[in-house]
Every structure is written in structure tokens, then in C-alpha cells.
Amino acid sequence: MILDYLKAGYPALCVVTSEPHRAENIIRCPGWKFFTWDCLTGIRETSTLKAIEEIRDPVEAIRWLERLPDSVLVTLNLHLFMEIPEVIQGIQNGVPKWKSIGSSLIMLTPVLNLRPEIEKLFTVMDLPLPNDGELYDLQCDIAKHCHIKPNRKAARAAKGLTELEAEAAYALSAVQKGFFSTKVVSHAKAQILRKSGLLEFWEPTSIKELGGLDELKMFIKNRTKAFTPDNDSLPKPKAILLVGVPGTGKSLSSKATASLLGWPLIRLDISALKNSLVGESERRMREALKVIDAFGQSVVWVDEVDKAFAGVGSNTDSGTSAGMFGTFLTWMQETESPVLVMATANNISQLPPEFLRAGRFDATFFVDMPSKPERQEIIRIMNKRYGSEIPLEFADNLSGWTGAEIEQLAKDSLFDGLDKAYAAIVPLSRTMREEINALREWARTRARFANTPDGEPEESRKVRTAKRIKLPSPSNPILN
């Protein structure tokens, strides 16, 4: 990574990384002497850690490099001293001298924040996080000491962690489970989200807890093989949009999808990212998406996306929603990370047209009121969950009820009895009849239907049949 730049005589390089000690080992290359500086230990030889000079002042360390040809000084946390004028001047004075003697200054920094006086002098690059092979090699080293078998699946699950974080996750798994557990590694990855403060880590829900929606379940199950590690021929779905009536299981479907894929579930709350400071909302959105990319395999749940982007077409928030919306769309289109976005919406009319254009989502599903077979399945699930005793035949009385309303019925029936609980609940299909009908009309030609259809009746019309009567022939005297 660094070798070509050193051969070309680049005098100042900036490597953005949160792993300075790993970077020290990676960037070393033959032909140059490598030294490391920090404000506590001074200058030491990078490979042997041998102390060279007790220079703790950053300006003196920068000037020290001017005396050594074909040398590289790797600085740790030099970005913290960028407000000192002497440091800025030292870099400006040093660049032409370093270039003339074949030396270079490499600044390792977790954030890119170069001052305008020196930003043109530095060439910036990113140090990528450990790849699958490096994570597996690290796991093999730990396995030798712990006498346990390596697990490639757990190594793939660690993608997105730093070397130190992965090592800690492997060690914790070995202590708690006695083997390398994918689940323990995934919980360690949840710390990335907690530390960012921008995202939420949710527990997936078993697919058995989702009643009905067989068409949606089949769509997802048929595409799980595209996410297997050794399958590069099939296109990987990137996003699914669920549109429908509130309480019909859209959010639960997102949680169940994570369970079906065996992936962690990340909730991206776009409204919570908004900030009153100019440009801060867009920055927080970019940071959140960067964390998702680093996290690796995951289901990204964006709930009620219609409310989050409702202000895109207006100037009520000075373009904040439009800026966040553009950043999100670009990320959805360009990200190479193995993620599946599950977006839910109640009011499709509030979404901008560019959000719904062809190719943005792999599929748009309409989630309607549950059919009779689905209502019976939901009753079974709720009876098992809460210990209620709603008979399956009662599903005939619940036509037009959502899954959330059936769940509330199951809970209330434990206190008030089934008949009284049933009479107390007014379903949305009655209070929002016009809006639901309009949504169904929209979905008729624009979306797939996620629900299991009601069974067809045995006969579409009742026909009475009578015994066939043989008519008399013309020769019969009765006709004469």
C-alpha cells in the first residue's frame, strides 16, 4: 500500500485508521528505515521498539526527520497538535527537505481533519479493516493456545471488527462456550453500534412468531441461497419495501428476516439522526451508514420510512431531510456491503417518487389484513404466547382485524373474557376504511401481495338440480 508512494517520493502521507499499532506493522516495507513517534515515548525504531531519541515535542520530532535520508517517521496522534502554529510550519518547511532526501512523514489518525494550510501537502489513504483471511488466521493462533477447533463461520461473522476487537471476541467465546461461537462474536459486534450512538442493535424474532405472509416468507427463503459464502453467481437482494396497514406485521417481518438469514438486526432510526445544527444531520447519516458498512452482514431495519422522509419535497426543514434522503439513496445504490435493507411504510403517498423507482428495491410487498387461514395461525401463536383460549372458529368474527388487534384481543381476554374484549376493540378496518381501500387500490398494480389468500369457496353459485324427466315422443297420445 505504502511502497509505491515511497518509491514515487511522496513526502507526507496520512493513513486514516483506528488501529495504529496494526498499521505500524503493515506499512513497513524494504528500502527505508522506519521509526515511530508518540508524545510519551519519543522516537523508537518501529520493528524492534528500541528507543532512539527521547523527543516528546512534536515540532522537534518533525525537524528530526530532516537529518535522516531514506527514512520514514510514523507519528501517532499528531492530529491532536494541529492547532499549534509551529507544528503546521514545521510540516510546511519539512516537505521540500524530506522530498529531496527520500524521506517521508506518515501520520496515523482515526479522523481526517487536516488544516487548510497543509491539506494539499498530504496524500490520504484508508487502512482497511482485517479481511476474512486475516481474521481466520488470528482465530487459528488463538485456537492453538486454547486447543479448540477454528470456525470459519465465526471468522466471517467477525468482519467489521478491528484486530483487537476480534481477538477479544474470540477469547470471550472460548471462555464462555468452549468454542468459537458466531453468536458471541455477533454480540461483540453490537458494541460497534453502542459506541457509535447512532444505531440500535435488536434481537431477531423467530420466523415461527410471524403468522401468515407466506408469499413474503417464500420470497425471502428462496433468496437466502444468494447469501451463502461460496455462491457468487446469484445476484444478492439489497432492499425490500413493505407497505401496508399499521399492525399487520411489517416490523415483525423485518425482525423475522434477520432470523431467517441468521444475521444481526440493526435499526436505523433516521428521525433520531436529525440535529438542529446546519449540516450535522447529514454528517450523522454518513457516519451511521459508515458504521453499517463496517459491521458487515446484517439486516438494516428502517421503520416507517414514509414519516422519516416526509419533508423531502418541501423546504420546511431547510433541506435537511432532502440531504439525508440523497445520502441514503446513494448508499443503497452503491454499497458493496452484504446488507439487506428492510424498509416499512404506512402511507405510500408521502414517499418521494425517486424512492420507488424501478431497481431501487428488489421487491415491494403490500401487507394487507390477514386472511382467514392467517388469522387462525395468529390465534394459535397468541394462545401459545399468552395462554389465552381463543377458539380457531372465532377467526370468522375477526375479518378485517390486524395481527396487532388479535394480539390485544388475546391479552384482554385473559382479564375481561373473550366476548367483552371483542366488543371493546374497534378495528382499523372500520375507522380507516377509506384510507385502507385507497392503499389496496394502489397496491393492486404496483406491489406484490405478501398475504396468504383466503381459500376459494367450493361453489361460486348454489345450483338446484332436479331429476331428469323423459319427454314423451310425438306419437304419444298424451300430446294429441
TrEMBL record:
Top-rank taxon: Bacteria
Keyword ATP-binding: yes
Keyword ATP-binding: yes
Record-linked InterPro entries: AAA+_ATPase, AAA_domain_protein, ATPase_AAA_core, P-loop_NTPase
SUPFAM superfamilies: P-loop containing nucleoside triphosphate hydrolases
Positions of region (Disordered): 450-480
GO molecular function, one term: ATP binding
UniProt cross-references to SMART domains, sorted A to Z: AAA
Domain AAA+ ATPase: 236-371
Keywords: ATP-binding, Nucleotide-binding
Protein family: Belongs to the AAA ATPase family. Highly divergent.
Name by which UniProt lists this protein: Uncharacterized AAA domain-containing protein ycf46
